Amino acid sequence: FFSHSQFVAIRMPAMSLTMMNFVSQRTSLMSLPNPSHHCRGTYCVSSGLGLGLQRGASARAARAHCVRCCSSSSSSADRSLPRRSMLTSAPLLMSSLGMLGVSKKASAEPSFPAGKLEVSTDELVSIIRADLAERQYLVNGNVSSNVYLDDCYFTDARDDFGPGLKKWQRGTSLLFVANKSFAELTGDVVFDPKTRTIEITKWRQQDYFRLPGTPHSPVFTGSVTLTLHPTFNLIARHDEKWDMDPDTITKQITF
């Protein structure tokens, strides 16, 4: 069984005894003599906390914990009793440890990403409105990057760009001629607290491409759904929808 220090430690709320420590003591559970009446019995761990008796324990406590006594010989079946007792006590031991405060560590709360701006949803709506109405970000990639996650996921009606804010910004700036293309906010910018999304309800756009001859698309319209992080007011997904079929737009590109 356990030493006196182990016996005290197991009663403490901050106890850190593991199941492996408990199982490693099994050999000592096999044959402790009873000092009060010289029995060759073995003591149980029926309390579930391994409250074993050491040599010199009181006779009354010895009688309370004795499994078998006054036997001059033991069969293999008898010798298996302490092991069975130990194994059946194991679940109770772990349950008791939980009641004493020994439990799994709660998963750490996610920390706010470094370099990002902590804002309210109203402030975020204002930033998104300015990004489109003032900076025309859809044709130049000039978004307020401090309110986007670095791995924000981007799609439009034609392509799935995948995660990566900087990748999307660079691709957009390289694709369009910014001083000829335009993107106008013609609708509203609305936050939905139930879905934690911000909707740019309507925009109007025309693209001039960085290609020989500077071909351009027709003027077309669409909307954007911005999905926020579950905890932080940061944009985790940017989905662009077009009111015109992508193939129709492509067919109407003019050189």
Give the secondary structure arrangement, pairings included.
Elements: H1 4-9, H2 19-24, H3 59-65, H4 76-99, H5 121-133, E1 148-155, E2 160-163, H6 165-175, E3 182-185, E4 189-192, E5 197-206, E6 220-228, E7 235-242, H7 246-251
Parallel strand pairs: 1-7
Antiparallel strand pairs: 1-2, 3-5, 4-5, 5-6, 6-7
Structure characterization notes:
By secondary structure, the protein is α+β, with helices and mostly antiparallel strands. It contains seven helices and seven strands; from the N terminus they run H-H-H-H-H-E-E-H-E-E-E-E-E-H. Strands 1, 2, 3, 4, 5, 6 and 7 form a seven-stranded mixed sheet that branches. The longest helix has 24 residues. The radius of gyration is 36 Å and the shape is globular.
> Rounded to an integer, what's the Rg over CA atoms?
36 Å
Which spans of ≥5 residues are poorly predicted at pLDDT below 50?
1-81
Q: Give the number of helices.
A: 7
Distance between the termini: 89 Å
- The overall pLDDT, averaged over residues, is 75
Kindly state the number of beta strands.
7
